[in-house]
Amino acid sequence: MKIVVLTGAGMSAESGIKTFRDSDGLWENHRIEDVATPEAWHRNPELVTLFYNQRREQLSVVKPNEGHLALKSLEVKHEVIIITQNVDDLHERAGSTQIIHLHGELTKLRSVKFETDLYDVGYKSVKHGEKCPKGTILRPFIVWFGESVPMIEKAVEITQKADMLIVVGTSLEVYPAAGLIHEVKPNTPIVLIDPNRHDNIHQKNIHLIKDTAANALPKLVNKLLNEH
Ligand code: APR
Description:
Number of strands: 9
Order of helices and strands: EHHHHEHEEEEHEEEH
Strand order of the largest sheet: 3-2-1-7-8-9
Largest sheet: 6 strands, parallel
Distance between the termini: 8 Å
CATH topology of the largest domain: Rossmann fold
Mean pLDDT: 94
CATH architecture of the largest domain: 3-Layer(aba) Sandwich
Bound molecules: adenosine-5-diphosphoribose
Structural class: alpha/beta
Helix content: 25-40%
Number of domains: 2
């Protein structure tokens, strides 16, 4: 089977990375408009740089959880393609081989001028004003609010070919990613894993598992490895 997995912040919650829409409405003590928009970058690039330095530092000390590891083990029997809204590298570190990052990657910087010029920085802190070898300023490789999502076309194409879609830990509030659940072929099963979701999605074929990623995914993966 071709299994497509759409993941969001809840996927990494049990690894110790906070989700975005926590009850205080802040992302790691910052308003999203202050750290995750092009306007924020123009207004105060030092603050934005510092914020992503902190995110990178945090990423260096957390680990993939049982959910990430389960998705890796699903590859033994199925073709698994992960489409993630997360900018962490926990799917990579769990060993998953096919991963599309819709919203960028923390461990990379990009040229402010050339979207596709990417530079690996790992978990290092960087200073605002550092330049790429071509001489342009570098910025975080993050798709900020209000920016286009270049990988969405590829993600749509992949989702349209899925035999099953698993959606884990996303509030499905941010588009275009949230629209992917409407791209599957008719009658394709969709499994939604989220401990807090109320059953308010009006789409047939959705099976809701009200549990966390690290609890629910190992059980679901076991079932998929034994049944199909
Ligand atoms: N396991 C599974 N799901 C969980 C867990 C968990 N342990 N803990 C929380 N969740 C769920 C929450 O109930 C919520 O529905 O994960 C979801 C997280 O939602 P958001 O914080 O809105 O994250 P996400 O959907 O990934 O946000 C999308 O918005 O801020 C931008 O670019 C950013 O990629 C991000 C995008």
